[in-house]
Design a protein that fits this description.
2 domains; binds adenosine-5'-triphosphate; binds magnesium ion; HipA-like kinase domain-containing protein; HipA_2
Amino acid sequence: MLKEVIATRYITPLREGGSLPGLVEADDLRTYVMKFTGAGQGRKTLVAEVVCGELARRLGLRVPGLVTVGLDPVLGLGEPDEQVQELLKASGGTNLGMDFLPRALGFDALAHRVGPEEAGRIVWFDALVNNVDRSWRNPNMLVRDGELWLIDHGATMIWHHNWPGAQRFAERPYDASDHALAPFGPDVAAAAAELAPLVTEDLLAEVTAEVPDEWLADEPGFDTPDALRRAYAEPLLARAALIHERIQEAGK
Ligand SMILES: Nc1ncnc2c1ncn2[C@@H]1O[C@H](COP(=O)(O)OP(=O)(O)OP(=O)(O)O)[C@@H](O)[C@H]1O
Ligand SMILES: [Mg+2]
């Protein structure tokens, strides 16, 4: 289970984010980047953030800590911005929070260097979860003190929008030609050799157990949140074994 906090103050929206994430202060006096259940993309985005974020962390990649944030919609009443007010009103209950990284800058391929090993691990991970949102246009990586942090895993595991076809989709290749780290010569073969054996049934059970039941309930075709947790694990397990041979890199 992720740590649970309660939002005590809405600080400001993060305008770059398409889903209008916001900065909030919580009852543990810490500041979190909050992603809302009431945002356009809905709760599946939040499930993807937890599954991929917690998996990446266990594979040794840097991801800000995740928590669940309880929200009383009353917090939105005093918001001058109508869009923010609507979002807070629609997001009562359990939302997602991630540790705010102060002083972090957005990744810029011209300003930061990344070694082929690290680039390989990140590209392999993105191929595993089919992340379509780490392109040079929108890298969704932050840099602080020379270290890369991965954020924004909402646009991954596209198969969770069509469960009957999920297992088949898992065999599809990953197009890495637009990947923000493609210019750094990612050593995907080394990453696969190191990381694929770590992606076991047990690890995926641990990762999916972190997703709150509230976001998994009432999915058509699944009787219980645990049945849906297993459905999240299966394509990832299958993909871990084969995806390194199906990564399409620029010029290959
Ligand atoms: N943990 C964090 N610490 C500091 N800044 C962050 C953090 N998470 C996100 N940000 C900032 O907020 C922006 C939006 O976050 P994020 O990309 O997760 O939102 P999104 O709505 O999913 O975005 P997108 O427009 O890519 O779909 C990031 O580009 C970054 O500048
Ligand atoms: Mg983003």
